[in-house]
Structures are given as structure tokens and as C-alpha cells.
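Exercise 3.2. Students should predict the tertiary structure of the chain below and write it as C-alpha cells, then compare their answer with the key that follows.

Predict this chain's 3D structure.
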Amino acid sequence: MATKNLTQAAVKALAYNPDGSSRQVLWDARLRGFGCRVTPQGGKSYIILYRANGRQRLMSLGPVQNFKGLEEARARAEALLHGLRHEGLDPMAARERMADAESMTEAWVVYEREHLAKTSANTLRAVRSLWTVHLAPVIGALKPGQITKADVIRLHDRASDRGGPIVANRSVQRLRAWLSWLHDRSDRQFPLGWGNPCAGLKLHREHARTHILDTAQMRALLAALEGDEHLWTRAYVAMLMLTGARKEEIRTLRWADVNLERGTAMLMRTKNGKRFPLPITPQAVTILQTLPVVEGNPYVFPQVRPTPRREGPQPMTEPRRAFKAALRRAGLPTETTFHDLRRSYGTLAALQGATAEQVARALNNTSSVAARVYIQLAQDVQRRIAERNAQALIPVPQP
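Answer key:
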């Protein structure tokens, strides 16, 4: 059949021609490989035609009435064709594999292999944890199309009790994205007119953390750390404060990736999965020079005591208790987290005049959005400084 710009009116007017070929498709001129097929019985469905591994394949996206409109169908077709052309993902092959999934537990294997494997190591680790601890116990035995709003509410309530409000929100958000991913690749697992049961669920209210330590507080924390008997704990927290790196990036740092003479380190396990060169200041070099190298353990911050169920050399476990104890000795809020040190580093950089783009680069953020938060926090600090200076010059009675 002809090729033209598909419109809602053209799809509605499409009719089967008894004198025509057995397969009658009106192809879209805007998106190559996308069209609307009509059957002798008058049924209409959106389809895509493509070539994979030397084979031409035709795949149905579903009946026309299953879509809210033409643009929704075109967007789905574009996403599938984009995955084929740029990532080598055969939509039909993915659907065939999904059709064999009898439960979310079986679907998880495909999701992990075909989607999560392309994400960063940190994302993969975080989603695996959500699946094992919160998702699998609630929806693991269900088929994708069997999950209801009541199941999602039960998941959210259970995760709230066991992991807290943020973990509960992330569990529902991850499930929503996963179900949409499954539906795009194998809608046969879902009933007609399926709607994502996670949509519209009221989540816990979240407040962006803006807690930072000022220069005096960070100095007090460094002084308090001198009282810690664990050499690696002192050095670990100090390195977080002096570099602004993420806690996992420093905790898993290896001696092979550190050059003390040049004052550089290569971070291998970053959030975005890309290696990142980290400058090591003379102060940080001095701290690292005090650390002994444990024979047989490649990590700068090694696990010196054997850990059960883990074989081979490991980095040290996160020293949360020692960190909280140092905060108490310094008279600082014990709610302070390791990530607050990173935020404080970025804010201090902004206070020194760095732009949002420069802060984002220094912290290895892919976007300067977070860095703009640091800029705003620095402006608050600058205002407090201006007010103190003005008060010193022209005292005004305080209310």
C-alpha cells in the first residue's frame, strides 16, 4: 500500500481492499518502518517492519484501540527501532523471551541481563538490593499482568516499615519503570487496556538534603578524628573531606590507581561507570603516606579482619559508628552523613568563586543541576558573612 504521513483521520479511514494483496499496510512517511495494518475482517493494528541478522521481521505493536492516539503508537515504534539500530536490540527476540516468563522472578533475569547490565555498577547494585529485599517477597511469584494497585500499596507499606520512606518510594518507582519496560517489549503478558498499577500512587514526601558543614565545623571534625584509634578510619573521612569524592569511590580505591608523586588518583568505580582522574592535594598525599600497605590486599583502605561469606581481599566496611562518634566529639549533628561531606566540599568550592559547571566537573557530576544547589547554599553562607560583617561595623540591636 501507499506511504504517507499517518494521521488519526487516515488511520480511521483505512479500509481493506478485497482486490488488493493479502497484507495491506499504510506506511508512515515520517517514521520509516512504522505503519498501520488492516485485516480482511476490518481489524487495524500498528506494526513495525525491520531487518535483524539478515532477516526481515514484522512485529505487531497491538490493536489501534489499545493506544490513546497515533502519537503514542509512533513513539513506541520509534523507541523500539532506535534500540534496534543503536543497541542491536531485536524487539521480536525480546518479546519471545519475555513470553516465556511465568513470573516476575523469571522476568527479573531478562530485565537484569538486557537492561540493568547497561547501567552503572552503582545503579545495578542498588536495584538488585531493592529487588532482593523489597520487591521479590511481594511480587516475585506474580505474573507481570497480575500485579494490582493493592499489591503496589502492600509493597510500599512493607518497604516503609523495613527500609524507610525513601527506600519505599524508590521501590515503587523502580517497579513502575520495570513494568513499563516489560509492556513495551511484550504486551501479550498484559491484559487489554492495561494501566501501570504504580501510576498515581501517593508516595512519601521527600525533602532535598541541604545540610552542610562550614569550614570551622570541618576543622573540628578533622580534630575529632585524631582521637580515633583506627588509622584507616581517620584517613578515609579526611579523604572524603579533601576530595569531595563519593564514599564508594574512596572506599574501593586501589594503590595501583594512586600516584603520590604526581598527586593523582584514578577512580575506577564511579557512579556513571566512567574512569575519573582525581587530583590529590599535598595535604591528602601526606595522609595517604601514613597508611601502611597490607600485603595481599590491593585496597588503600583494606579490610584487615576476615569477613564471613567473603573470599579474597576486600575493602574496609563503611566506618559509620566511628564517624558518628567523631561527630559527637566535635559537637556536630550526628545526622551528618558521608554524602554531606561531599555537599560541603562543593559548597566551599562555590564559596571560593567556582561556577556550577566547574563544581560539577570537580565532583564528576554528569549534570550541573546538583552543583547549582551548592551555589545556592554558598550564597546563603555569603549572606551570613555579609550580615556578620555589617553587624560588626554598624551594630544594630537584635530582636
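Discussion points: Residues 215-392 form a domain with the hpI Integrase; Chain A fold (CATH 1.10.443.10). The chain has a mean pLDDT of 85.
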